[in-house]
Give the backbone structure.
Amino acid sequence: MSAQHAHLPPGIEVITTLPEAAALIPGGAEARSVRVTLPPGDPGAPPHRHPGPLFGYVTEGEILFELEGQLPRVLKAGDAVFEPGGDVVHYQGANNLPDAQSQLVVTMFAPPGAPLLTVLSAAELAERRHLRVAHQP
């Protein structure tokens, strides 16, 4: 434990800190806590974007996670997750386990009334294909 967190009572642990995230929160945003539960092998939502940043962690199982400009990676229970929101595309958030449920809990910061996510059209996906690290030629 760092000296910065030495004052915390037993059982309280800071997992991850992202000081740069505050600059991404839209003015007047509301905080939303969201739990995503995926059945075994569930592919998750289709490619989409969020109206603001989100920060959270995997509570159970494994999530295959891919953001635009990043390689896909597997997040396991206890791993933190961050998305900047806005224009960045969230390509994958699938349950990586074929035989067990996976779950993550996030706090999203978004303008009041904004949708949790906006699914991209096939045309927009084609236009942004060059920005996807894992895309196939």
